[in-house]
Design brief:
Length: 324
């Protein structure tokens, strides 16, 4: 099923038909205790931090005794995301937090009724196949984006690897948000006169082969916020270190595993904002259909000291070392 967003029209029709009918755009009934389903695509420090931030915000806002969390992890399997989402719908949770693109897509396919808040989503228009996305999904979906300014990420390659002429764009072909980021970075770099080559791996099984090819053929590599790459960061590092090919990463978790630098957001803070949104939806303070997608407005330039030292790369003073 395509996820073209017809939800706004569905909600409008439902409200006209019956003021009592409750879809995702309507206020959630106040309860003594709310059950919140958390669907996380894969175990990874960034996504883990977003989940913890989300849970902290909801308990801060509503009280620990007012929220029951049902956590499920799909182990990076989209079909498991669908199973998790359908289970949440069957058990009639009050809200679904979808952590990762595949988790969001599965939840959107599973229900038009239960409010869904995404987090760690790069671009909602791409993830939900919304043409001319304006920043508000409508219907029963909203959330937060982990997208940092892509032109600034691309400029890092030029600044930190000034001799680079060919840049490899390494990402998983199964992740549409990765393709979106790569397209934007490629446009920027090619506008600066660099040559870009796509290196797509289908899953973790072929990441070593593709990463090795990119390292051998390119002067530098860019990896977007890609869940499969994140879970394979140490494997990628092993593939690129023999050629000393530097990597600019889309997020801190990947950078810690294999990159020299990143324009970093705080996933815990992003999750916390998502939790604050959830509290407003659950208590009826705001309608989810009217909530615009929220972003981290203060990304920070960070670098991996260990790998930079190994490659002999000196970073400017405005960069912060990861882990500090």
């Amino acid at each position: 099923m395509k996820i073209k967003r017809i939800l706004a029209g569905v909600c409008a029709f439902a409200l006209l038909a019956s003021a009592a009918l409750s879809l995702g755009s309507c206020s959630t009934e106040k309860k003594d205790k709310y059950v919140v389903g958390i669907s996380q695509l894969v175990t990874h420090p960034a996504l883990d931090a977003a989940t913890e931030g989300f849970k902290k915000a909801l308990t801060d806002k509503l009280g620990a005794d007012k929220v029951e969390f049902v956590y499920q992890n799909a182990a990076n399997q989209p079909d498991v995301c669908a199973t998790i989402a359908n289970g949440f719908v069957s058990s009639k949770v009050d809200l679904i937090m979808a952590n990762g693109t595949a988790a969001l897509q599965a939840a959107a396919n599973a229900t038009l009724d239960i409010p869904i808040l995404g987090t760690s989503i790069t671009e909602y228009g791409v993830a939900l196949e919304i043409d001319n996305f304006t920043g508000t999904v409508g219907g029963n979906i909203s959330g937060t984006s982990d997208l940092a300014p892509l032109d600034e990420q691309a400029q890092m390659i030029i600044d930190l690897v000034p001799g680079a002429k060919t840049v490899g764009l390494l990402y998983c072909s199964a992740e549409p948000n990765s393709a979106y980021q790569v397209a934007q970075v490629k446009k920027y770099l090619e506008g600066k006169g660099l040559t870009c080559k796509d290196y797509k791996f289908s899953d973790s099984n072929d990441v070593t082969l593709i990463a090795t090819q990119a390292a051998n053929e390119c002067d530098a590599i860019y990896i977007p916020t890609d869940n499969t790459a994140a879970s394979s960061a140490e494997i990628i590092n092993g593939a690129v270190l023999p050629t000393k090919t530097p990597i600019i990463a889309g997020e801190a978790g990947i950078c810690e595993g294999c990159g020299i630098a990143t324009l970093s957001i705080s996933y815990e803070s992003l999750g916390y904002v998502t939790g604050e949104m959830a509290a407003k939806v659950l208590t009826g303070e705001e309608k989810i259909s009217e909530m615009p997608i929220a972003y981290d407005t203060k990304p920070v330039k960070k670098y991996n000291k260990t790998i930079c030292d190994e490659l002999g790369i000196t970073v400017p003073e405005e960069y912060e070392a990861l882990g500090e």
